[in-house]
């Protein structure tokens, strides 16, 4: 099973069952051929497993912003690169230390890690997934206008994350001061945000599809779309430590290739992806398709992002830390592997 549990999973796609059709060559010959074939398949399967290199990849939420990782695992795109990717749900605060200690190989928390790199953490973004915001602010029924959020709490994934920054920018667009007029609460997951909104612990919550659609069906309308306020905002991508890049550049390149192939797959195989979304989130096909169509517009086609989008993250971080220092893009991103992969795949 490639995804186990409601809130987290550690998984590969699992082994493939191979079948063969044998010509009838007599009962004795058939039995011998079947025995020989079975042994060959078992040995081949064991050999294939031995060749696969296991790596772990942390995601911060089980939302559609993570579709490149889901697709890469579910449809064997990482396995084609000789990688058995184990996806784990991890609190964003733990990702940086885990990467540096070597307990974690990669993460999709590219935006937050880019902010950490801006302040000096030795990590690098390798490729970009979400390059436009795919976030919606859903509110409780008593909130009629943006001004009604004054003095209220808004649920985000974690303080200082992209969801936190986007929530504050949306509030600012309502004419409120996000520093004094609202409180953001980092609750760790979309499921926790749902619970807080349902119980009235918060007046609003920032959601990624399909959770925004699910919330709407429950009576919590969307009061603002992040894309109407912020045109460029980096979200999920692929990130690792400087140490991993130095120790195993070959694996890093294969991981980047698998990630980029997943981005291409998402666009080429709509029906397969929608079916995956339907089953994974246990939602109706119509909602799955609607969510897919929203999300696909936010993903990079080849793993690249604009220089301005990267610069925005750097400047947002420096502003938040009241820092005047200069930070170059090479401090937060290593795109050499991405450029090589794009050339090899004919995407440049």
Question: Summary?
Answer:
The chain has two domains: 50-132 and 234-344, Periplasmic binding protein-like II (D-Maltodextrin-Binding Protein, domain 2), CATH 3.40.190.10; 136-228, Periplasmic binding protein-like II (D-Maltodextrin-Binding Protein, domain 2). Helix content is 44%, strand content 14%.
Structural class: alpha/beta
- The CATH C-level name of the largest domain is Alpha Beta
Give the strand content: 5-15%
Indicate the radius of gyration in whole angstroms. 22 Å
Strand order of the largest sheet: 7-6-8-5-9
How many separate structural domains? 2
Helix share bin:
40-55%
What name is given to the CATH topology of the largest domain? D-Maltodextrin-Binding Protein, domain 2
Characterization of the model:
This protein is α/β, with parallel strands linked by helices. The protein has 13 helices and 10 strands. Helix 9 packs across helix 13 and helix 10 packs across helix 11 (285-296). The two termini are 36 Å apart.
Topology:
Elements lengths: L26 H25 L1 E7 L7 H8 L8 E7 L2 H10 L4 E2 L2 H9 L4 E6 L7 E4 L12 E5 L5 H12 L8 E5 L3 H10 L4 E4 L3 H7 L4 E4 L11 E5 H6 L1 H20 L1 H12 L3 H12 L10 H14 L15 H9 L4
Parallel strand pairs: 1-2, 1-3, 6-7, 6-8
Antiparallel strand pairs: 4-10, 5-8, 5-9
